[in-house]
Design a protein that fits this description.
The chain is α+β, with helices and mostly antiparallel strands and about 325 residues long. The protein contains 8 helices and 13 strands. The chain has 2 domains: about 170 residues, 3-Layer(aba) Sandwich (Rossmann fold); about 130 residues, Mannose-Binding Protein A, Chain A (Roll), CATH 3.10.100. Helices cover about 25% and strands about 20% of the residues. β1 and β2 form a beta hairpin. α3 packs parallel to α4. The longest helix has 15 residues. Pfam families: Lectin_C, VWA. This is VWFA domain-containing protein.
Length: about 325
């Protein structure tokens, strides 16, 4: 990559970071480091380097060492060393943005294995292909990236928001013991929320209160058949009735979810009885699910639903 290319790429990256809260504090802060690579890889900014966006604007100045190699493998390993240092917080996601305008196979170790290991260990690898004028594409980047995390300026509509969205996706995760629901499983992101099955029964009012105390959660909201199957799959007894976050509202003359929204078109009631308020769910034959009106003092197992930890929701 030329020196002009480095500066152009740097401008894009910093523009993408301007909407982030750059700093060294806990909570909603993002730490940024930088590794440059050619024949070798060098640490140019550690994760403790920048204290604010203005600091990043004034000092983020990646350089090249004059070599023409493309030792991506060494660059990833050096970035991993930063995540293993005291500059990394253990309760946040590890993200590498790998930018390149060319790759020379055979001049260094194949980066495929180290990239795969980083992904398998829970890290996210975003690749940014920068095709300079008269330059060629870099196909290996798409292979190294986490699924759905490759972007390129060869797409004419590339903007800073594209990288920002990838960073938001990477920081979207479920806490330990919470099951992720993935609307798009390819991307390995819990875009459908996080779910915690409670394997001991309780009355509905107690189940609801418990879920509300779990990172601001609620009893599960089941909008369609696919989600009903997902919820049922978390229980070993396939005929177990479980509470869902649906109640009959006399004021609205209909059923309302715990988040205040009205029930949609998916309403697999096996029977209806508006004289009782609460609703339980039970697997039926095949892939069917049945809902039953239930007395709220009955005891059933239940599933809590919560929004994932993300850039908008910090999980300590």
């Amino acid at each position: 990559m030329t020196s002009h290319g480095i500066l152009e790429l740097s401008n894009y990256l910093v523009t993408s970071f301007l909407q982030l809260n750059i700093g060294q504090g806990d909570g909603h802060y993002t730490r940024v480091g930088a590794v440059g690579y050619g024949d070798n890889a060098t640490l140019q900014h550690s994760l403790t380097s920048f204290t604010s966006v203005n600091d990043l604007l004034s000092r983020f100045n990646p350089t090249i060492d004059g070599t023409k190699g493309s030792n991506i493998e060494a660059a990833i390993r050096l970035a991993q060393d930063q995540f293993d240092s005291q500059g990394h917080r253990p309760n946040v996601k590890r993200v590498i943005i790998l930018a390149a305008s060319h790759y020379e196979p055979g001049t260094s170790e194949d980066p495929t294995q180290v990239a795969q290991q980083f992904r398998e260990d829970g890290g996210f690898l975003i690749t940014l292909e920068y095709v300079q004028e008269h330059g060629a594409q870099v196909p290996i980047l798409a292979d190294l990236a986490s699924p759905c995390f490759a972007i390129s300026n060869s797409n004419a509509d590339l903007h800073a928001v594209d990288l920002q969205n990838k960073l938001c996706m990477a920081n979207c995760f479920c806490l330990t013991n919470w099951e992720p629901y993935m609307i798009n499983p390819t991307c390995n992101v819990p875009d459908g929320g996080c779910y915690y099955p409670v394997l001991i029964p309780a009355a509905e009012i107690l189940a609801k209160a418990f879920c509300e105390r779990q990172t601001g959660g609620m009893l599960v909201k089941v909008e369609d058949a696919a989600k009903a199957i997902f919820v049922n799959s978390m229980y070993s007894n396939t005929k177990e009735k479980t509470w869902i976050g649906l109640e009959y509202s006399p004021l609205k003359f209909g059923y309302v979810w715990d988040d205040g929204s009205n029930v949609g078109s998916y309403q697999p009631f096996a029977s209806r009885n508006i004289s009782v308020t609460c609703v339980s769910q039970q697997p039926g034959s095949g892939f069917l699910t049945n809902w039953y009106p239930a007395d709220c003092v009955e005891d059933h197992m239940y599933t809590c639903q919560s929004t994932p930890c993300s850039a908008d929701k910090y999980c300590p």
